[in-house]
Amino acid sequence: MSVLRVLTATVCLVPTVALVAFAAGPGQQSGHIDKPVTGKTIAVSAANVSYREVVEPLLKADCSGCHSAAAHMSSFNLETSDALFKGGSKFGGKVIVPGNSKQSLLIAYLRGAQQPRMPMNGTAISEAKIVRIAAWIDQGAKIDQAKLAWPYLPPVAHTVPKVKNAAWCRNPIDNFVLAKLEAKGLKPSPPATKVALLRRVYADLVGVPPTPQEADAFLKDFSPDAYEHVVDRLLADSRYGVRWARHWLDLVRYADTHGFENDGARPRAWRYRDYVIHSFNADKPYDRFIKEQLAGDELYPDDPDALTATGYIRLSPWDELSTDQPQRWQDYLNDATDTTGSVMLGLTVGCARCHNHKYDRITQANYYSMQSFFAASQRSDLRLPHPEKDTPAFRAIVTEADAHLAPLRKQMQELKDRYRAAALMEKAKTAKNGEKVEVNDDEIRGAIERSERQRLESLDNEIRHLEDEKRPYEPEVEAVTDSGKTAPVEHLLLRGNLLTPGPEVKPAFITSLAGNVEKSATVTPPANLNSTGRRSALANWIASADNPMTARVIVNRIWQHHFGRGIVGTPSDFGRNGDQPSHPELLDWLALRFVQDGWSIKKIHRLMLLSNTYQQSTQTSPAAVKVDPINTLLWRMNRIRLDGESLRDSILTVSGRLNLKMDGPGVYPKVSDEVLSTGSTHKWGFSPEAEGLRRTIYVFQRRSLVLPIVEAFDGADMNNTCPRRAVTTIAPQALALFNGDFSRDESRYFAERVAHDAGDDTSRQIDRAYQIALIRLPSPAQKKLALDFIRQQTELHLGDGRPNSNTRLRNIADTAASEEARKKAQHAALADLCHVLINTNEFIYLD
Ligand code: HEC
Ligand code: HEC
Fold first, then answer.
1. Contact 361, 152 (CB under 8 A)
2. pLDDT tens by residue, 271-306
3. Which ligand minimizes its atom distance to the CA of 495?
4. In whole angstroms, what is the distance from residue 132 CA to residue 596 CA?
């Protein structure tokens, strides 16, 4: 297991930061003046250096830790151009002399000619950067219009492009894609086969393969809208929410435990998981979905769902044993800010915690202003409003536990009552005169006679056990609320350090995303609540059609899961360090359409799935590979591998054992002792077998222990947000799928199902096994191979699995009595074939 852990530990880490010089990225207008590196030899007239594009970001990145609106040392603030020209308390406006960099103290400070060199106590900024700033001053230090570029500008309504092969386009998505293909002389691929398409859309929408009946119905339906009907049926299927909730849970790092060394359970966390599943199934408008999670308690205080949703804010790992409470609280605030930034805004906001963002237009002041929206929050375990509306099954469990608890509690009370007097007498002995004597629970317990101690202990145990069983079903949630009408004062933390608070910050939106206007957010405390209203302000801003990021980011995520790669390949980083969009106009078009359609996720699925782009085959073409090797332009469909959860669910589907029950606390499938011994000190729980066969999303999600098959197939590490699963090919995958107990056990059930459907005839069994696993019949060659395989394996099993066992003896013993043994051997051989089928690429990859 240790190898496996090491290999999969690399999954979903925050993308590595490329330490490139700031101005080397796109948008840089004057790269060529970089070459000579001494100021004197540079021909500054060669190109205009833009203040907005070059100078402002440079100064902000390296200086505004100390010279910003928030932290203005020497009264010098260089975050706005006005303030920059005003200068500081020592030299005033003289730090910049337009047209003369030599007389400008700003440059002298940077080179160290004026002491102390700036950035003070930091690494000197490179000569190449200084040269650029000097050039800008020599060119007159002009301030150009603030020009925001991708991704800070709101989506633009692009016209749907015209294409030569208009007949190929089923909806505007196809026009956008085809226009780019045609521009490169590429053609789309032919449509996928019906079988491939069906397997693809099932895996995509519900995470499991179709049954042979469902497949048959589709394959025989030749009406033009047969596929459309399947899409609509699957979107309405409750398994859809189960599948798509997984993608969201990956982002918000959902787990049923707290993480850290202790990794203690969070008995009510599952209500958030179920909330997400039901929200997807109900096609809850995405703007509402966001508002509920950020501020459901303030915006919809009577809605149990909305209260449950606020659990989002506290899903981060939480060190229960922390001895540094202030730091733990700061970690919580950081995590809520960073995760909200990357999940909902698609920007690495967290990079501005210790310094201004080195690549994107996010200052440290922006960061802490955003964080201050969470400043008044507190983690509250709350009773749900309208507990009577909770699921009847859960209410029944609570009622039953209460019925068992009542007599036990009564017995306990009686026991204690009998010793209360004794405890009082004992205490009175040491009490001062006139003092009123009272005893607490511990003192009463201490007075209980030895002979009854055992009874006390067993009552204690029984009560605790029942309470533990009941707790997860109580109508209670792990929510977040505000601690009052006013928030504690928040400070910018210099270098991100709690011990070095900087100036005070107020709630404000990230300037570059708010039309580049610096102003505080308007926060209105909700009328009848003891709450600040801060999180509502944040939620309303993020879930607004005016926010340039929100809609784009979510449609891109949906696209990513359908097509295997986002239009922006770095789905949680639309900034400069992320990938450029492959189809920016399409992304904008989709984002606008999404908002127009009432933020409906199901409508956007439909649009994508019904496009011809989605329905292409995965077939590759050498000519196209030359032009676009990684298929950025989508001249074919990407081949997608099932993720660990889908793989497990698919295997259980073909074995016929998947339990589709929804809702409720996490379950514990059987896991080998070997695996458990590598986990945390907490034991894996026990569930009845049928419960352990539920969809993987319902498996108790321990931060320190992931199901082996899921872990081997690049499961997500829930200590961090995971925007994109890794797809590695590593040896433990073969070990899990070929040698693992799970796949071997399920292969036997799969074989039973086949034998049940097909009877004893081997040829029919093979057909059936193919139909169930791959929804097609074997080719004649495959049929022959399978027949031979079963024959050989039967012999092997008859000979106790040893290829060299004595066939002569066996022939003599081959009487009617051994017919039973032969049958068993044949069945084992069939199970081997089934085992092979779930190990095929065809099963694991979507063509
Ligand atoms: C770690 C904090 C820190 C950083 C980072 C920093 N400075 Fe300073 N800066 C100071 C302090 C403190 C002073 C006052 C120094 C003094 O007079 O002794 C100052 C003074 C200045 C002044 C003089 C202003 C005046 O007229 O009073 C300029 C100009 C200046 N800094 C420019 C910069 C530039 C440009 C950068 C970024 C490359 C930068 N500083 C980064 C702390 C910092
Ligand atoms: C916990 C604090 C912290 C966080 C969070 C952080 N950094 Fe830094 N970073 C630093 C420190 C400290 C330095 C070195 C001093 C400096 O340049 O401010 C640094 C330096 C850098 C540098 C080199 C600066 C240069 O001009 O050579 C880059 C680039 C950088 N960080 C990028 C990032 C990115 C991208 C992220 C987000 C993924 C990030 N940082 C998050 C603390 C942090």
1. yes
2. 999 999 999 999 999 999 999 999 999 999 999 999
3. 2
4. 44
